[in-house]
Amino acid sequence: MQSEQIVMPMPAPEPAFFDNPAIDNLIAVTLELGSELWVQKERMRVVEMLLAQKGVVTTDLIEHYQPSDEDIARSKLERDAFVQRVYGAFARETVKATPEISE
Length: 103
Prior knowledge:
It is a single chain. With 103 residues, the protein is mainly α. It has a domain at 21-85. It is 56% helix and 0% strand. The chain is built from 3 helices and no strands.
């Protein structure tokens, strides 16, 4: 009787974009913080709309809120502007702060 070996799958390594893993980690943190901030901004927009329309806000009202097509379009424009403000620096051309010294 042969014994069967169970081979557990290995998790795929996180992709590395820079030589220094600390830079990759900082970018990951920055992206996650931006995502969390955007979710909070969207939720606050819903809270403010509900307060203006109904004068009261409940968790149920927030969770079941359905934005209009106009609200969705405005949110997309604001999101695009947010992404450009927060992450636009990643697309800038960079210059070394200290030039390389040739000997």
